[in-house]
Queue: 3 jobs
Job 1
Amino acid sequence: MKSLILTTLLLLTVGVTGQDREFKSFFMNGKKMMATGQYQQALDELKEAYRREPKAQRFRMDGAFFESYLPRYQIALCYEQLDIMQADEWVERSKEALESEILKKKDDLAEYHKNLERITNNAAAGRANLRNAYDLKLSNAQSLLNENKFAEAKGAFEALLAMDGSRSEAKVGLANITGKRANYLDQLDLEANRGIMQKDWRKAEIAMAKIKQLAPNLATLAGLQRALLEGRESERLASLPKKEPATTVTVAETPTKTATQVPTPDPALAARRNNARAAEAQRQALRETLLESVAEYRRGYPAEALKLLQDIDESEASKFATYHWLKTVYLLSSFTYGGDQDESLKQAATESLKRVVQLTPDFIPDGRLYPDFILNFCEAAK
């Protein structure tokens, strides 16, 4: 029985000695590497020693000399050269483990507190610098968002999140981008429509260019582009010069009488002039009605635009290819966007297009001004 107990004690002693020797070896290697500036390698050795033996203690070296084993403190000193925030964390661990109680010499204890205080102060300064740097970058990210530079703002907020994930400002900034972007697009859409209505083409183009850069696939962009082109075309039609009826003026021979004579009015000439003025007034009224119908169509009301054309005296309007072409466009749009798909509208559009070709045999619609379904209809009709 005594033999068994002695054997067990011997085995336990050997086991402890082997483990003790291993943590000492890693600890001493770590200290040597720190002395030569190999801090990352030293940190690996010290952490391995701490894994094997986390308890602070004094252990005997050769002879009568003792070494103080303060694993958390030594790791903090090593981290001071690598990551001051991690060093400060290990300082707190050293305090919690009461590692200072292992130090028996006053000089060693004073150095311990001096080093811990230095690390704590440097960490506080580092946190202050980090906050200042974060605040500066946050201000820049917010400025980018306020300037509607959404891609750059997103990158800036994501960098802030990686810089300090514990602060909420970057998360809030990223969450705000979607709503602010949508509001900005609505504002640009409104600005473009206002420019078109006011015939301020440059204003509309600038707003549409911003929309295209930010959201090239936005559903309303194609409609804005079409409205802009149609508005310009309407303005061009309105600016066409008015043709004055040609009149032949006959210069009578001057009588030989010296007395002043009043010429006799020519009833036929006066009638022609009256007729010409009436025809011009009728053409002007027709032109204004056509422009008014274009405005209704551009606002998205093809049925209302068609009604304006139907109210025109067709005996006069039927002479103009523009009248028949606009009628074709409005009929097709009413057919396409109407809920009942009335085939009679499509048939009427075909008849109007025939009249356009009769009046203008080489007629080709401008592909920039009209939707694809109108262009396809014209191509099929040919």
Job 2
Amino acid sequence: MQHFELNLKNYEIAGAHCLKLPYESPCQNLHGHNWYISIQIKSKSLAEHGMILDFKHIKDYLKSFDHQNINSLVDFNPTAENLAKHFGEYVWMLAKKEGCKGVYFVKCEVTEAEHNTAAWVWEK
């Protein structure tokens, strides 16, 4: 099967968050990370403009999280896993909005420290 892929690798944003956890953890205190976000999209087709999705539109959305308190921007516990899901769902919906109807795979990875990466995968 032929398909197209879009890969955004290690887009960096800096931000702070604090987690709501049912146990004692230093992560309950406001703290910061330099997050690296990688997104992969696979599609059987392209939108009319010849792309799955414009990289600029993805980066503009991610940039809105840069140097922010992430807790003030989202209505969920901003764990790396939940952020991966949030960003992944956003780009999937954005691709559909821009006219790419063939998307069948989205993967978003959020790295918050060198050895700590969480991912969300959607596959049709």
Job 3
Amino acid sequence: MPAVVCCAPARSEHRKSHLKVADIFRDHGEAYTDKYPLTIGQRRVMHDIEICRTSVLGGHLDVCDKCGHEQPFFDSCRNRHCPTCQSLDQARWIQSRKDRVLPTKHFHVVFTLPSTIRNLAMQNRRLVFKILFRTAASTLLKFGSDSKWLGGQLGITAVLHTWSRSLMFHPHLHCIVTDGGLSPDDTRWIEGKGKARFLFPVHAVATVFRAKFVDALRRARKLGKLCFKGACANLADSNAFARFCDGLFGHKWVVYAKRPFGSVDNVFDYLGRYTHRVGISNHRLISYDDNGVCFSTKDGKTKTLQPIEFIRRFLLHVLPKGFTKIRHFGLMAPANVNTKLGIAHQLLAFENAVRQDGMSENQVVTPEAWSELLQKLTGIDPGLCPKCRLGRMVSHPLPRKPP
């Protein structure tokens, strides 16, 4: 494994102000593919990131109707793993979900898989990630339905992340959980008890989560759904797998909870920081040359990886094709959106606020155009000429060019 060293941005050829993951892929992608085999999904991600916002995808030419200033814009690849394409998609997602936010307090809860499971997870991504979603949600819902703790149905939105700040494989689930729930007879909203950091004791939640996850692994093994290759090939033996599962109870399983900052209106803004995040964003890149990519990690620290190793770690986090990384449970589950969630809104006196804005529950909100959304997010009017500051930019389509 290439060594990790302190970065030295002064000797780099590329600077943070314009550096993108795409630059590293374009410069070193071919060398990487010569060394490592790619899955179909990884190959697609590399290709899309390399051509993102280039003439290969086409675009439009904006021309000022007063001074004639020209400014080309190329289309985005829209790949969910591309660090260049996520901001507007994230904003649109937040906008579309805000009408479902319940006017109550919310908790941010994180479920993390222990390191001993990660080799098995890498070989069985779709299955293990699915188990992670299912067992984390069922654990929370189980505690919520228990009258000892709450006695109601929670609302949960969960987002999968697979990386650490240094791009190592580190599967964990970010959840936004309502501080309270709908009663079993749908007649009242039950507030969370007390002023604890979380609705339930996190150590107890972690214990139940661990038991549910290990049980799900055992059932998956019994049904022949697990693949044992590479570093987990030894687990193909039934006795070795049984010992492996037993050993999982000897490891600490981490469940972390905190309240999101801000008001109820900002709950999904808070979650939005996680929904469309990829392994590493462009703004975390500090510098790179042929010997290393330097990027920020945590608490002002940095790491430098050889370009090939950087690409390898980035591609560790390509999700299986079609895998849904944002899921909703309890009151937020699709089956409850038009029933129990609406009742919860009424019980929390949310419906009156909606009606004051002249909107009924069933009205369709017209999505904002990208230019309107950009102006709302940044305060920048993309239609105003950046040169004369008087004219309006008129768009003309640009043809695609072959790579």
